[in-house]
Amino acid sequence: MPKPGAIVGILPIVAECRATAQGLARRLGAKLIDSSPTEGLYLACGIEGLSLRLRTVRRRELAIRAELGGGRQAYRAGHASPRGEAIARACGLPRYGSRYVVDATAGLGRDAHILARLGARVTLLERSPVILALLEDGFDRASRQTQSLDWLARMRLIGGDATVWLRSCATVQRPEVVFLDPMYPRQTKGAAPGKEMQILQALLGTADDAGSLLQAARAAASDRVVVKRPRQAEPLAGESPHYRIIGRSTRFDVYLHSCE
Ligand SMILES: C[S@@+](CC[C@H](N)C(=O)[O-])C[C@H]1O[C@@H](n2cnc3c(N)ncnc32)[C@H](O)[C@@H]1O
Prior knowledge:
By secondary structure, this protein is of the alpha/beta class. It has 10 helices and 11 strands.
C-alpha cells in the first residue's frame, strides 16, 4: 500500500490556495512547504487546480493532474464512439449500451471518463490518497463548468482498496464489468516511460498484488473483467484471457464470466 509520506509536501502556489493546501496537508498527513523541493514528489495547489509534480535529480520538473473537464483528454473523450474505442468494445458497450462498470484502478480517471462519456455508469476506486486527491480536484473543476455534464453524474468516486471493495460488493450490486489497469511492470530496456508513468512509479512503485485484484474482480463481475496491458506484456497473473483486443501500444484482455 503506497504511503502518502512519499510526497515531500504540499505547496500553495498562490495565497488564495493556502487554506485548501492546509486542509489537504492535514488529510494526507503531509507538511505545507513554501517552495518547490530540489528533488522528489510534491503536490502543488494553484488556481488551475491540484497537480502532482516530480523534481528529478537533473532539476527537471514533471507534472500531472486529473483532467476531466478540459484539455486533450476531454477532447478525446468528447469525440469518442463506442465502436471506435477499443476499451468500449472490450467492455461490451456497442452491444449492450449502458452498463455498470467498476474501474478498480482509477488513476487519473481517463479510462473511466471515456466509458462514462459513452454511456456507462462508472464507479471509480482508488487507493492512493494522493491520486484520490488529484481525482477529486478533477471532478470538482469539471463540475464547475457551465455546460451540462450528464456523464459526470454517471461517475462515482470511492477511496480505498479495490480488492476489499470488490469482495464485499456482491451483497450490494454486482457490476457487469470490472475494468483493471494496474501499474505496468517497470521497463528494463527500450524507451523511457512517459512523464505520467515516471511520476506514478515514483509515487506508487509497480503493482505486486494485481493477482489478488484480478481474482476479486472475476468473482465480482457478472459479465466480464477487462484488463489493460502493454501490447507485448504477459497476461496479468499468468491467467490467459478468453479473447484480446489489440491496439497500437495497448491490449485489452477480456475474461468472460459465462466461460468460467
Ligand atoms: C496505471 S494507473 C491507472 C490509470 C487509469 N486507468 C487512467 O485512465 O488514468 C493504476 C492506478 O491504480 C491504483 N490501484 C492499484 N491497485 C489498486 C487497488 N487494489 N485498489 C485501488 N486502486 C488501486 C493505483 O494507485 C494507480 O493510481
